[in-house]
Design a protein that fits this description.
mainly alpha; two-stranded antiparallel ribbon; two-stranded antiparallel sheet; 53% helix; elongated
Length: 286
Amino acid sequence: MENPDPPTVGFTPGSDLAKALEGWVDNPSSEIHLATKKGKVRHVLLEYQLPGGQWVNNSPDLWDAIRYFGPKIVVENPQKVNALREKLQSLGINVRGIIDLDVAEWLIAFKESPETAPEPHSRIPPEYQVEYFMYKLRQGEDYLAARIARIQRKDIEDPLRALLFVREWKDKINERNRPALLNVGIAAITDIWNMFSDSDPELLQEALQFGKEALEIEKSSYTYCALQAIYRALDQHGEADDCIQQAELLGKPCQDTGRRIRRISATSDVEARGEHFLDKKDDLDF
C-alpha cells in the first residue's frame, strides 16, 4: 500500500485501515479512502496478495478483471481471466456485478451467436436470462413469455416490470401460451397490491380480467387459486369460495403457502396505520 502523505504507514489489527482492508475483497478498488482525526487519507494500491497466492501488480487491466471477476479468481487463474476480459471488452458486453468464469463464457457464446448459445443455467444472473429468453421469444417461442415474466417478478423482484411485460405481450403470443402469462400477471398485481405500491381498486379489477381471459382458454386450478385471493381482497368471499371449489373439482386444491393478501375494505385504515391487513383465509398459491 502507498500513502503519499505520510510516505509510510503502519497499522494494527482492528484499526480503521485494517477493517478497510478486510472489506476490500468484497468491494475492491485501486484506492482506499479513510476519514481520520487528521483529515481524509488516501491509500493507493500498488499490489495485493491473497492468502496462499502470488503478488498481483496494479494496472488498468487488473481493475477491469477485478471488476468482472473479483480479486480471488484473478489470482487463481490470471491467464484465463485476462483472455475472457479481453473477449468481453471486444464484444462490448456490459458486465453487471462480479461474475464467475462459466458465466463469462456463456455471455460470450450468447453475444457471438444467440441462435446457438445454450440455455442459461441457474447461475446465470436473471437479467442475462431475460435477455436470452427475450431473444428466443422474438423468434416466435411464445411459451417463454410466462418464464420471462416469472423471472422479472420472482428473481429480479420487480413485479411492476413483470406486470408491464404481461400487458405488452399477452395479445402478441398465441392463445395456447396466454393463460400461463396471464397467471403471472395476477401474481404480479398481488405483489404490487400487498406492497402498498398501488391502492387503486382498478388494479384488482385488471387481475380479475386476466383470470377471466385465462379461464376462457383453459380451466386451470392455478388460475382459480390465484383469483380466489383477488376476490378476497375485494371482499367478494362467495366468489373466492367458488374458485376454491373449482380448483378442488379439477383435482388440484389450493395450497396454503402462508402468503396473505390485503383487503380493500381495510385499505384506508391500514394505510393510516402503516400496517398490513392479514387474513388466514387468504391463501395464495404462487
